[in-house]
Specification:
Blueprint (H helix, E strand, L loop, with lengths): L4 E3 L5 E3 L2 E6 L2 H13 L3 E3 L4 H6 L8 E5 L4 H14 L4 E6 L5 H9 L3 E4 L3 H13 L20 H11 L4 H8 L3 H15 L4 H10 L1 H4 L19
Helix pairs in contact: 1-5, 3-4, 6-8, 6-9, 7-8
């Protein structure tokens, strides 16, 4: 979708991207809208993201900016839904600066750009312009987070079994390992993936099934186990 531009004096042009904003915090929404409108962008805040995704919107926005304080899993789920709704659109996630491990997750979920909340006044508009130009834009301090984690074969194997709903005890029995060894593999894998729980790890695995040897038939209806967030 092209951006409409107005020709100004001396041949200069001014382009006004249409931005849809989804935020679960009023203060964050006001900050984001203030920054973008000051840069000449048209900003709309249609409300609930789930309702917007399933409704007939007519004209699609040039950019969607999303910020959620309800955790990485919820934010990434919404980004994936938005990416499916707007396969050719541009998505930018605004996240807390203490969520650096979440930068890679946001990009893998489908975001084209990531902005830390603490710096949005200075970098949000340039990030919007960058993604409109076909670039992926993330904070420089988080570039290393985009590197694919180097999981060992055993870590991939254990994670794949976690997704199918097996407990550590069951995994240990099938792999002929001590349960403590299974926990060590999971602890290492969690650190590399930047996750804190079995469900968050399962989210990452299900997004990259081919890397873990997880067959489609092995996709569970739910992968939560009685072990919850424990290793």
């Amino acid at each position: 979708m092209s951006v409409d531009c107005t020709i100004l004096d001396e041949g200069r042009t001014q382009c006004a991207p249409l931005v849809e904003l989804f935020a679960d915090d009023d203060l964050a929404a006001r900050r984001i809208e203030s920054v973008l409108t000051a840069d000449g962008m048209d900003v709309a805040a249609p409300g609930d993201v789930a309702e917007w995704i399933t409704s007939d919107q007519g004209i699609d926005p040039h950019v969607v900016v999303i910020t959620f304080g309800r955790g990485l899993t919820e934010r990434d789920r919404q980004i994936r839904r938005l990416r499916k709704r707007l396969p050719e659109g541009h998505l930018i996630a605004v996240i807390p600066e203490d969520s650096r491990r979440g930068v890679r997750r946001a990009i893998e979920a489908g975001a084209d750009g990531v902005v830390f909340e603490s710096a949005l006044e200075s970098v949000l508009s340039p990030t919007v312009r960058a993604v409109l130009a076909g670039q992926t834009a993330v904070p420089a301090a988080a570039c290393r987070e985009l590197d694919q984690p180097a999981l060992s074969g055993r870590e991939k194997q254990v994670l794949g079994m976690v997704v199918t709903g097996l407990s550590n005890k069951a995994i240990a029995g099938q792999l002929f390992l001590a349960e403590s060894t299974v926990k060590c593999h999971l602890s290492s894998a969690f650190s590399k993936l930047g996750v804190r729980s079995r469900n968050e790890a399962a989210d990452v695995v299900l997004q990259s099934e081919h890397q873990f040897g997880l067959a489609s038939s092995a996709r569970p209806a739910t992968y939560a186990t009685t072990e919850g967030s424990e290793l």
